[in-house]
Every structure is written in C-alpha cells, then in structure tokens.
Amino acid sequence: MGVDWTALEEAIRRSALRQARDVIENHPDHEFYAIALSGVSTDPAEPIELPVLALNSEQALDRDGDSVEEDLGVGDEPEETEEDGDGPDPLNTGHEDDGDDAEDTAEDSADDDDSDGFDVDGELAQLEAEGEAAESGASYYSSRWNPPEWHWCSMELFDESAAVLWREALTRVAESSGWEETLRRYYELLLTVVEDLRVELAHGRNAEIVAYVADDDHADALLRRSLTPEQLSRHFPDLVS
Q: Fewer CB within 10 A of the terminal residue: the chain, N end or C end?
C-alpha cells in the first residue's frame, strides 16, 4: 500500500495552518516574520519523518536574544583580577633566559607565517564578518532564520498514532519506489504547503511573513523555491542569480 499524497498534503496543510493561526491570534501585538516546516531527514539511512512546524515574531526574536545576552553576561565589562606574582606563570617554560631567545623565536615564527602565505589578519577579518552576518540575521544560519532556535518551534503536526501510520507508509513507498524519488515528491508536497501557508497568513501586520521548507543540506535550493522573488532579494540577496 502506498502513500495517498493528496491526503498527506491536506493533513499537513490543515494542521500547520490551524496551529499557526492559534499562535498568531493569541499574540495580536506581535509581527510574525517567518514560518517554516523542518525536521525531515535527508539521510537515506534514516526514516522519512513528518515535518514539524515553527514560527517566530520580531518581538520574540528580540526578547529571546536579550535573554541569552543577559544569561551570558554579554556587554558586561570583564572583572579585574589582581595578578599574583608568587603563583605559577602559565607561560613560563621553566627557563630563565633573557629576552633575546624570545625575540628570536618571535621573528622566526613571523618568517614562517610569511613563507606559508597565511594571512592571519585576513582570516580573522573573514571570521568576524561571518559572525556579524549571523548576528544581524543576514545569514541563513543565524538565529533569525534557524527554526530550532525560534520561540515557537518543533510543533508536532500529528498525534503519535497518526504520525506512525504516515511514517510507515512513507517507508514502504521509499522501499518500493526508491528513497530519492520518494523524498523528491515529499519535498514538492511540502513546498506546496508552505506556499499556501504564506498566502493564508500574509495579511495585516504579518503581510511580509516568509514561509519556507528548512533543510540545511539543501538550504539554497529550498529558499529559492519557497520565497517570492521580492522576499529572496530582500532577505537573501546572495541567492539571487
């Protein structure tokens, strides 16, 4: 027995839309900027799972980010500690040489770096730029676009008994029709669902909501298929060809 793809699509759509509307209606002062379906494994060795629903608002993103900074003490000045001259020096090698050997070693290290062509400053600048992009939300892998980090995340669409039945049906189809072909059709179904979610939810204060299928292994391709050209250009300009 195969999968009734039409029934599965309608079941996912109906459950996702109902749960998303419940969250949105219970938070009338929030501007929801994204909704996603995620959690489907792309590893042939693992079963094809049902997606989970996630959504987030600008207010929740700001609040959760502030909470993390408070917990980590971000922005606080480091505490000043007195140096204990009698204690062990972690940089001391146990030799009492004068500074000449240290200077020679430093010069040799600098020469080695130059000969290898390794640009330390360039590498640090690149890492800093990548970090700033992630913090600002410009990166797909930032908290802004990573569903597991959202305030409303991992919302199950089916109860356990229904989920088991669908997983078993998908597994049988993958065994008979091939894993890649089954997953391709499954993702086409999810892309159709997220498009419907965007159309249904993109109104009023949430008019700019982005709906997409989240998958790190195929992030670029799925974003191009999920977002409108305007949304793609605004949020992920590097993906615009």
A: C
Average pLDDT over residues 216-226: 94
Please state the rounded mean pLDDT for residues 71-81: 39
Burial 161-176 (b: 16+ CB within 10 A, else e): eeeeebeebbeebbee
For 83-114, the pLDDT digits (tens) are 343 433 332 334 344 445 444 544 454 444 44
Q: Are 227 and 145 in contact (CB under 8 A)?
A: no
Residue 40 has pLDDT above 80, yes or no: yes
pTM of model > 0.90: no
- 57 forms beta bridges with 32
Alpha carbons 202 and 181: distance in angstroms, whole number: 32
In contact, 142 and 133? CB cutoff 8 Å? yes
Residues 6 or more apart whose CB falls under 8 angstroms from that of 166 comprise 3, 8, 11, 50, 158
Among 200, 188, 149, which Cα is nearest to 14's?
200
Q: Look up residue 112 and give its two tokens.
A: 């080695």
Mean pLDDT of 211-230: 95
Segments making up each domain of the chain, as ranges: 5-70+128-239
Query: What's the CA gap between 187 and 207, in Å, rounded?
Result: 25
8 A C-beta contact, residue 209 and residue 33: yes
